[in-house]
Design a protein that fits this description.
By secondary structure, this protein is mainly α. The protein has a single domain (about 1-180, about 195-395), classed as Up-down Bundle (Growth Hormone, Chain: A). It contains 18 helices and no strands. It has helices at about 1-15, 20-25, 35-65, 70-85, 90-105, 110-120, 125-155, 155-175, 195-205, 205-225, 230-235, 240-270, 275-290, 295-310, 315-325, 330-360, 360-385, 385-395. Helix 12 runs parallel beside helix 14 (about 295-310). The longest helix is centred in the N-terminal third of the chain and has 33 residues, at about 35-65. The N and C termini lie far apart (about 40 Å).
């Protein structure tokens, strides 16, 4: 578990670590206008998640068929190689292509979740996946802070070298430290599913489909404020060391994740994952409002920390629910589709936040995000309290 936690942390961090210096790195390629740099910064950051959205189910399906460990080694090596090559890139288009390739091999995290899920008894799945998820979420949230610190200390080139080296180390630890126990299917029905059968299974399970669609909404809502957080900190403080102070705001959410994710998973094991998910959605909605009303940095950091404690339980509980709802031989592919929805949310969120803030204000983005979490919680609560109606709807559509 420690090996997978370590690997997931650095793989997730590698996807977001370029946030603090991406525009600065692009400027080193030539004398470009501000609009050109901003436009390509968005393209280069978003392309990784867009390609990952397209290929995640494919990696899950391959893992279901041939085993998860080989996929972990292949995708981890691909991510490390793409980051290493970024240190040699000399054009904006070259960086774009490498980030796109990085998205193609970003099947590491959903595959690791499927591996741990397949090796874990169902009664402790939420707790175990919650522990693993702290690595993934914390890496994604602390990635910008780590990237900024490394770039300031060593420069852009050595930042890519160091990050690639750490991920290569994680791949070696997986290769020699992880043993995958192959589980034999228990019945003929679990032996093999075509892609069409997997999709049909998802559609015929209303609660499962809701969970996956809500993954998109939650991720879009969460990422809507990420690119704007530095600007918001600037509005609150007006300080010169803006990057460092914004790093605190980013990191607060990650530290909250570290403290609470495992406990939410344990609660889900006891009372049901869908109930915990509803609770967390309502709490997340509530905690976005004081962030919009913050008048000082310490208030923002405090409520970002509390939000981190809450939102950190969503993904492990969703993953554990999917694991309990999907047959063993299709779990990897189903989890892959769920991760695809999340990656799509990563693309939609920043664009949505940018549009809202350009027409209104950054504070408005917090209110809209709060409303999305509230609606998501209501939709899921309705699905829990009216399961028969949802099933009848699916049957009539078939």
């Amino acid at each position: 578990m420690f090996i997978m936690w370590f690997a997931n942390f650095f793989v997730a961090a590698s996807a977001t670590m370029v946030l603090p210096f991406l525009s600065l790195f692009i400027e080193t390629f030539g004398n470009y206008s501000d609009s050109y740099v901003q436009r390509w910064s968005g393209f280069i950051f978003g392309i990784t998640f867009l390609t990952a959205f397209l290929v995640s189910p494919i990696w899950g399906r391959i893992g279901d068929k041939y085993g998860y460990k080989p996929i972990l080694i292949l995708t981890g090596s691909g991510i490390a190689t793409s980051i290493l090559l970024m240190s040699f890139v000399e054009s904006v288009q070259g960086l774009f292509i490498l980030r796109m390739f990085m998205g193609l091999v970003t099947g590491f995290i959903p595959t690791s979740m499927a591996l741990i899920s397949s090796q874990t008894p169902k009664e402790i799945a939420g707790r175990t996946l919650g522990t693993l998820q702290t690595g993934t979420v914390s890496g994604g949230l602390l990635g910008p802070l780590l990237g900024g610190m490394l770039a300031d200390s060593f420069g852009f080139t050595y930042t890519f070298f160091i990050t690639a080296g750490v991920i290569y180390l994680a791949v070696l630890l997986v290769a020699f430290g992880i043993k995958e126990k192959k589980k034999q299917p228990k019945s003929d029905k679990e032996k093999s599913y075509s892609r069409k059968e997997v999709l049909a299974y998802i559609v015929q399970k209303p609660m499962l489909l809701k969970i996956m669609l809500l993954s998109l909404l939650i991720q879009a809502a969460n990422f809507s404020i990420q690119p704007l957080l530095t600007l918001y900190v600037g509005e609150l403080t007006g300080a010169a060391n803006l990057a460092l102070l914004a790093g605190f705001a980013f990191s607060a959410t990650g530290f909250g994740n570290l403290l609470a994710s495992r406990n939410w998973g344990k609660l889900g094991d006891k009372i049901g994952y869908e109930k915990v998910i509803v609770l967390l959605m309502f709490l997340s909605s509530l905690l976005f409002i004081p962030q919009a009303l913050s008048t000082s940095l310490w208030q923002l950091v405090l409520f970002r920390f509390l939000f981190g404690m809450v939102v950190g339980g969503l993904i492990p509980c969703m993953t554990a629910y999917i694991r309990s709802a999907a047959p063993l031989s299709m779990q990897g592919e189903v989890l892959g589709y769920n991760v695809s929805f999340r990656f799509l949310g990563n693309v939609i969120g920043p664009a949505m936040g940018g549009l809202i803030s350009s027409f209104y204000s950054i504070s408005t983005v917090f209110y809209v995000t709060s409303f999305i979490f509230l609606c998501s919680g209501i939709i899921l609560l309705y699905g829990i309290t009216h399961p028969q109606r949802a099933e009848k709807t699916v049957e009539s559509s078939n």
